[in-house]
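Q&A log
Question type: sequence-to-structure
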Amino acid sequence: MQITSIEDFDGEMPTHQRWALARRSISKPEEIAYYLAYAPLGTRVEHLVRVAGMRWAIEETFQAAKNECGLDQYEVRRYTGWMRHITLAILAHAFLAVMAADAEVKGAAETVPASLPSPWQKFGGSWQLSPHRSPLTSPSSAHAR
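Response status: OK
Response body:
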């Protein structure tokens, strides 16, 4: 539903229009999500619905970047440091996503088994350092000689 423009915010000749969207879940019809949108004049409702539906994919991507690349692990005092950290974390996440997609396209048949097991294991949708240590890095292996 289009919301009427407000002259104080939009001016006499508005270039954008305001929308209120309601979206019902297919799996849980009792759940309704509401969105307020501000889009250029002439934007179709179908486009607004598609963009609103992309919210969850974007939110999941940010959550994965927090888990895998430390997106939320910054303690900075200035904007420049924060921007550098965020940029590096997002770049690292993009790199990991491309590498994972490339490995999936190649398939497991073309991969060469590693001589030593990797300490990184995939759990769910993210890579985590395995709590099990390799026998070569174990402190007791140095004493076994």
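Response note: The beta strands are 2-3, 16-24, 32-40, 120-123, 126-129.
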